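Hi everyone, sorry if this is the wrong subforum. Our group has a chain we'd like a structural model of before ordering constructs, and none of us has done structure prediction before. Sequence below.
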Amino acid sequence: MNIGAVIATLLFFLIITWLVIGSEQLKRYLLVDFLKGLGVTGRAFWRRKITQHYPDEGEELPISPRFKGALALRRYENGEERCIACKLCESICPALAITIEAEERADGARKTTRFDIDTFKCINCGLCEEACPVDSIVCTDEMHYSILQRGDNILAKDQLLMIGDMYEDRIQHNLREDNDG
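Answer:
Right subforum, don't worry. Here is the predicted structure as tokens:
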């Protein structure tokens, strides 16, 4: 049997199949879409790769002023902590990650004696930031933080205030940018 007869027979069966079951069904049987996908993969396989290995290569990622990264507690300009122990952030937290204990000071103001955030529970939703009437608790734009040992996941009041002190300029910049935009 010669090659021409084989090709003619295959074409005859393809035409008969096309007439009987339709072109869409024939495409499914011949795996046309699968073969097109393999063609795309084959072409991309031989192209030069452009992947950057962040953070070792390339530039810093652009971050929105509304990005919700590490949590921090802020202070007033005079150095006094902003938190008035209203416990709104604790009550609105859907993950129950915030624990606050407060007492009344000699001047009658309430201040926190304990302000803990469990970073394992925290889902960085920002509801605590929205609920705070004095902008005490904020989400910074710091995304490069990690917990390396068990027990380090609980951020205490002094740690949160330290984070707030370190990022205060950036926090103010992001708040201004968010309010302007």
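For your construct planning: The beta strands are 71-73, 98-104, 110-118, 137-139, 154-155. The two ends are 77 Å apart (CA to CA).
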